[in-house]
Amino acid sequence: MHVDHDFGFGTQIRKSPYFEATVRWGAKGFSVYNHMYIPRDFGDPEQNFWNLVNEAILCDVAVERQVEITGPDAARFTQMLTSRDLSKMAVGQCKYVLITNADGGLLNDPVLLRLAENHFWLSLSDSDILLWAQGVALNSGMDVTIREPDVSPLQLQGPQSGKIMQALFGESIMDLRYYWFREVELNGIPLIVSRTGWSSELGYELFLRDGSRGDELWETIMAVGAPFGLKPGHTSTIRRIEGGMLSYHADADIHTNPYELGLDRLVNVDMEADFIGKAALRRIRDHGVTRKQVGLVIDGPPLAGPNTRFWPVRHEGADVGKITSAVYSPRLDRNIALAMVSADVAEIGTTVHVTMPGASAWATVVEKPFFDPKKKLAAA
User: Does residue 78 sit in the same domain as residue 178?
Assistant: First the structure.
């Protein structure tokens, strides 16, 4: 969404601690995510992609709001929210988790951080889990406190991000493992730093714990990163789709279950602990699903940009699903897409027909992710 110099959504849309810095550094357009502005335009999105995969970009992702769960029953309550087994999760560890409702529908796919035995953060995708968690807690009989803390993440992503982190924090930061975090300070700025991100590249998230110092943090990182080619940027739709990463409300919603998404590994219906949606997900596992998420390669000239609507998918004259995310990948030189289709056309190699605005094309079901399927870059 392109906006004028006032960025005039009104006061009901919050600005992040980095908002003014991103405008200074060239942000031209914003979208809304978790009731906050998120920069979506620093110029050419293809150049942003190459900046990410060749050097590094710094992204304002303060929209990844944190839901903080504390109190004597925090561990038990957090397990009740998610289908993933947390029994072996250590303090200092992050886990990608799913939050489901009683029908097994996906409400959010956050990253969970365990700060202490009974202290957790849910780092959210785009939906109101603060309200959900407070509602669940109300009649749970558990002693928990659920609130939104003063925490605002930045993402530093790309192959040069490790060198930039070393320049910022010293050699000791290099032994931070994939999906682990630690508490650090930078010039007295309180942070949590994790080896996570939404890019499928080597990357870090820096969780600012004092919103008054956002401008200072942004400028410090950009200055230190300059010799390494660091650019201001935004989360890359091209790289996200290459990596097969979900965008909530696009690729999944409250009516989508984890088995349709191929996320069985994040669901443990046989564990002893109870969680919301357990019975429904067990039934879905036992009966199978009628539709599945697939990767598609779409024939034809490069798409002008990502899709802004769901595109119908047909097979032998029948409607079989929809494309949820599509984009041209300059690295792969092909149009790639994530789609939700009937299970009977989800087999690799199946040919389907896609209807786009003003055009139509054939597409082929392929393996996803489209690039670096073993996440060797991010987990290096």
Answer: no
Q: Where are the alpha helices (DSSP H) in the chain?
A: 19-24, 45-54, 74-81, 129-138, 161-169, 214-225, 237-242, 278-287, 376-379
Q: Do residues 318 and 345 both lie within one domain?
A: yes
> Is the pTM above the cut of 0.85?
yes
Residue 87 corresponds to which tokens in the numbers above?
Answer: 């029994």
- CA–CA distances in Å: residue 174 to residues 69, 166, 171, 181, 268: 29, 7, 6, 12, 33
Between CA 280 and CA 274 the distance in angstroms is: 12
Nearest to residue 196, comparing CAs of 187, 209, 205? 205
* Res. 2: pLDDT tops 60: no
Structure tokens at 293: 């998420």
DSSP state of 13: S
Among 64, 27, 21, which residue's Cα sits nearest to residue 192? 64
Give the structural domain span for 189: 19-63+151-240
Alpha carbon distance 154, 16 (integer Å): 10
The mean per-residue pLDDT over the stretch 6-29 comes to: 89
